[in-house]
Amino acid sequence: MKEGKETLKVALIGNPNSGKTSLFNKLTGLHQKVGNFPGITVEKKSGQFAIGKRIVNLVDFPGTYSLQSRSMDEEVAANAIVDSQNPDHPDLVLIVVDASHLKTSLYLALQVLEKGIPAILVLNMADQLSRLTSRLDLSILSETLNVPVIKTNAREGKGVDELKQIIASYSLEVPTVTWNPDTEKHQVIKNILQKSNGDGAVSAHGVTKKLDDILTHRIFGVVFFLSLLGLMFQGIYSWSAYPMELIETLFSYGATFFLDVLPDSFLTRLFVEGIWAGLGGVVIFIPQIAFLFLFVALLEETGYMARVSFIADGWLRKFGLQGRSIVPLIGGVACAVPAILAARTISNQKERLLTIMVTPFMACAARLPVYALLIALVIPVGFQGLALLFMYLLGVVTALGAAMVLNKTIKSEGESHFMMELPDYKIPKLSNVLLEIIRKVTQFVTSAGKIIVLVSILLWLGASYGPADRFETIEAKYAQVDTEEGEQQKNAELLENSYIGILGKSITPVIEPLGYDWKIGIALITSFAAREVFVGTMATIYSVGSSDEDVSSVREKMQSQVNPQTGKPLYDLPFGLSLLVFYAFAMQCMSTLAVVKTETGTWKWPMIQLVMMTGLAYVSSLAVYNLAALL
Amino acid sequence: MIWAALERNICTYFWFLFRIILNNVTAKDLIPGQHAIVSSFLDARLATHLAERGVVAGERLSIERVAPMGCPIAIRVSDHVLCLRKAEASTIVVLPEAI
User: Which residues in chain B have their CB less than 8 angstroms from residue A415's CB?
Assistant: First the structure.
């Protein structure tokens, strides 16, 4: 606390779509941070600003319709308001009310006021609505409710300075309740609105209704939505390729630079090959996360997201998912990490969990290089495109199937209801969209990012170190060799004898029934950093140079391998199909596990995911290998 | 409004009348454009949550639109549009305004 200044805890409470977050953005600007409420995974947006003699710590609570809590999100607001011992218990509440929905939103306002907390009623509205509510008598409203009432247009920033002034000078007296709390609240609201001329206030539904006639239409609505999805997918998939390439180049330049400048030591290599590479593995996700949330935030801001849920709910409900699950599922085709973050928009906890659990089945971009290599290796020319399409379909079908099974096995916490407002369409506000992207990116970097860097360091340690005697023998063997080829062979032998190599060999009995040898075993383990590492690992093992992109030469090497027992190609069709299926199903992505952990709040779900997906992969690959070998 | 109900066919019409007498018509049974007055609720817990969103006895509601799969449905009530699944809509007992 600064000298002579008084710190004030202020809470923003309001219905979803009341413009609460717009107001929060306008009040705090960039002085905001996102965290979680203690012990649970509900997002906590907090920020700070100073006004007069007061420093205001503002917390934006999740939107809610009442203090009789239903979902985890809503419980947070209720607990903080009701319990004065709660660390988030506010000194002052800003009740944000959508001026076009006075009748519905005053319900929550009355509940908050009855708790005896100093409050300010913020009538938030869009410009075009001001004429509709111009008859509304603010002074009567303020008198009846016994709290200051102020009009704002948070999206345009109007009335925000006046609101700050009121906060600066507010006496923080507990307002007396002028109505009988035992009467039916809707009767109280009716009386208040009648007195203050607010009962005639209606919103401009005309445009929304016309738009909805098209956008939720049985045919046009679905067509429009699918085209939008196509655009979104294209955006995440191809537009983010440029920044991702740039990040890759920067990080590899950085690595070369550090290796040149710093003395060759354990610490240098730990930094460059472990930490720096791990950081690169975190930063590489940022473009995809940013693009996905650009779309998600736009859909939310315009109000179209509610329509998406409305259209898709009927289909997805059959699988235990709901309308909003569609965005994570589609996003999962690019990358499960941002997609799982996008599952936050699902308010029902069980449906959100199911969505998180099955999204990694979607064929993500990291699987593509592996699919490309294996398909080129074993599928005859002419069927390769079809095979790739099939792999994508396999992902969708498995995700939906898994949701159906999990839906039956996971016990529902609370009732599964679908009650959602269709808000009026709005033109999106760029600053709100950008702030949302910034919030999501920071959250990913600070939560899942840590785990990714840590696992990356462990993988590096395992791959670059092995039993000292074995390493010494190899070093001695290649001491005289300084050709590039010799260097590559040495690296391959080092990897074979590293701890990861030894581990890869030790799991051979387990993976042999699937048709894999120890080399694939090593690749399976290193794939845990990211699936596409498979290609690079195979390249190192077959010592074809360290260029990850050189798929064709890896393929050639793999194709020329001969099974010593049969004399036939080592990597044949049964092997290829088995491995394709394994990569389609297995949970081999530490970043996804990390993000699932942070999103569900416990290691339980990522572990279940790991076992479920990898188990399914094992059984399916076993079946596919043996069936294909019969043919 | 009679034609709206007649659209379904005459049998449904009388069946509908009969159910109104039994106070057995719920928001699920209404067709788009039809107005009704909320009379009671079949699920007490759900009733609280509906009340939070402006669905209370005596309130007028209308079916705004129905999703492509026939579910959920969007109802206009109080001063906004609310989406409900059919299961939830069937807990709201209503009195159709005209038939």
Answer: 45
